[in-house]
UniProtKB/TrEMBL annotation:
Record field: compositional bias (Basic and acidic residues): 26-39
Organism: Brassica campestris
Disordered: region residues: 19-41, 73-101
Domain of life: Eukaryota
Protein name: Uncharacterized protein
Organism lineage string: Eukaryota, Viridiplantae, Streptophyta, Embryophyta, Tracheophyta
Length: 101
């Protein structure tokens, strides 16, 4: 009789672990999707800010030099502020930040 109760308890434990693991996986996937959306939103904002700085730098050699130096220090490509178009539409290609995980 004791063996039967042990088997029933073990089966419940295994089922509870499977349920908990499934719940964790679902929660993690949802949180990952939310984080991707936030990061994409932040990237759009940063791109907009970068465009604004480029527009502000047009005709201001000190600011152009400062932006070029900052981009070089960060390893970013140096952009020509004369080519900035504030009315340009942002490309809608979401970045997959977590593909390498």
């Amino acid at each position: 009789m004791l063996c039967f109760f042990a088997m029933v308890f073990e089966a419940r434990s295994v089922n509870q672990v499977a349920r908990a693991t499934s719940s964790y996986t679902s929660r993690r996937d949802e949180e990952t999707s939310q984080m991707k959306a936030r990061m994409d939103s932040q990237q759009v904002r940063l791109d907009s800010l970068e465009d604004l700085l480029d527009v502000m730098a047009v005709g201001n050699p000190v600011m152009q030099r400062m932006l070029s130096q900052r981009r070089a220090a960060l390893g970013l490509p140096v952009r020509d502020p004369q080519e900035s178009d504030p009315t340009r539409q942002q490309p809608s290609n979401p970045t997959d930040y977590f593909d390498d995980m």
